[in-house]
């Protein structure tokens, strides 16, 4: 079903609260993470390029009128970058969830980097 503008805005607000909380929690699980898609993923397969693109480039994104698409993508890349993610957050993930979270973060980081490349090349063509 199509989400309303209000539902999408609520998802973004909840995700910001979750990012703020991640650093304060001692133990994390798959469901603690604000995965950058518009629904809570049950599996890695749901972390698709299309779903991530719909989230990051949503017209209801809180930074939508302040930042370019490229800057929004870069902000997400910083959050999900393996160097930062695997040293700061991954050690807190429950042992039985750790591999799946690591793989999920890797999928997200790769998709965000691909999205940034696509944005850069389309800007070069049409900018």
Short précis:
This protein is mainly α and 127 residues long. The chain is built from 5 helices and no strands.
What does this structure look like?
The chain has five helices and no strands. It has one domain (5-126). Helix content is 61%, strand content 0%. It has helices spanning 5-22, 49-56, 69-80, 82-88, 95-126. α3 (69-80) runs antiparallel to α5.
Helical fraction: 55-70%
Number of spatially distinct domains: 1
N-to-C order of helices and strands: HHHHH
> Which ranges are low-confidence, i.e. pLDDT below 50, for 5 or more consecutive residues?
none
Q: Distance N terminus to C terminus?
A: 34 Å
The tally of beta strands, per DSSP, is 0
Q: What's the main sheet like?
A: none
Tally the helices: what do you get? 5
How would you classify the helix and strand content by structural class?
A: mainly alpha
Shape: globular
- Calculate the mean pLDDT score and round it: 93
Strand content: under 5%
Whole-number radius of gyration? 15 Å
